[in-house]
Design brief:
six-stranded antiparallel barrel; 6 strands; alpha+beta; elongated; 10 helices
């Protein structure tokens, strides 16, 4: 009987030892090992995202000079463009998305700021107004012979609001030479005004939608946009400055505008994407905070100076 007892113990030990035999890596390949080596998904901030991470992103881009608008917490096209600019000047692939590489560079002490000499080149999206590239001086044409002064009926234009007096080579009366520090209170944000092109007499209505160093405006309707384009002619979508008169709250003010819509868009349905800038005496550009000499020359001309 003892013999049978000892045989049972030996068999039990053999069975237990077999149970403890290690399982090979190949046998676990479809199980635990695969789970343990699964890569962690990279966090990416991209277009149409929103939240506190986007707030931090916009604040940092603003601090480095790449983002020149208010912090909204929404990753829109302007934020995407600012990210691409940052990636461009920090030698990162320009995807417009913020992954680990961009994040690391963005918040490092070695992050490259927006180069000041590159601001003008990217101004079409930042609300800035760069100086036009000078063109070669054309050969002077012979001075034309004086023509007969048109009668009041032939020079009348329904778009000029009755202002048909020609002065300083313009087709309308000159305006008051008012400083921007005064104008910004006469023409506050959300105010509608009438703009008259000094050379053509064509006029249209605009609303001031923004700007702190000059007025950012948009035509109030598609018909106003059509008149804006008519006055500009071939200079639509061109940074060339034009003298104009702004009628607002009983004032007639000398000003200057350009024909290149850019930046944010606050009025829908007016057949114009973006806004354009109107400058007054001593107004300044957004990013560089400088007085634009070309705008100022047009303002003085509209004032008859």
């Amino acid at each position: 009987m003892l013999k049978h007892y000892l045989v049972g113990i030996v068999l039990a030990i053999l069975a237990f030892t077999t149970f403890l035999t290690p399982v090979s890596a190949e046998e676990l390949d479809t199980g635990i090992s695969a789970t343990a080596t699964a890569p962690i998904e990279e966090k990416v901030i991209k277009l149409d995202d929103n939240g506190f991470e986007v707030v931090n992103l916009q604040c940092r881009l603003q601090d480095l000079g790449y983002y020149n608008y208010k912090v909204t917490g929404y990753f829109g096209s302007l934020t995407e463009y600012a990210v691409k600019l940052f990636q461009k000047y920090n030698n990162i692939e320009q995807t417009g998305k913020v992954g680990s590489e961009t994040t690391e560079a963005l918040y490092s002490n070695s992050a490259v700021r927006m180069p000041m000499d590159a601001i003008d080149a990217d101004a079409d999206r930042f609300g800035n107004t760069p100086s036009p590239t000078p063109k070669p001086t054309a050969t002077p044409k012979p001075t034309p012979k004086p023509t007969k002064k048109p009668s009041s009926s032939s020079s009348s234009n329904s778009n000029t609001g009755g202002n048909t007096v020609s002065s300083n080579a313009g087709k309308v009366k000159t305006g008051d030479y008012l400083d921007w520090s005064t104008v910004k209170n006469i023409f506050p944000k959300k105010t509608v005004a009438t703009v008259i092109d000094f050379d053509t007499g064509v006029s249209w209505k605009v609303k001031r939608t923004g700007g702190s160093k000059h007025a950012d405006v948009e035509p109030v309707s598609s018909s106003d946009t059509a008149l804006y384009k008519q006055a500009l002619g071939k200079y639509y979508k061109n940074w060339k400055r034009h003298s104009c008169i702004v009628l607002v709250n009983g004032y007639r003010i000398a000003a200057s505008y350009h024909g290149y819509p850019h930046g944010y868009d606050a009025i829908s349905g007016n057949n114009l994407t973006g806004h354009y800038c109107i400058h007054f005496k001593n107004s300044r550009t957004h990013c560089s905070n400088k007085i634009d000499s070309d705008h100022q020359a047009c303002v003085r001309r509209a004032a008859g100076l």
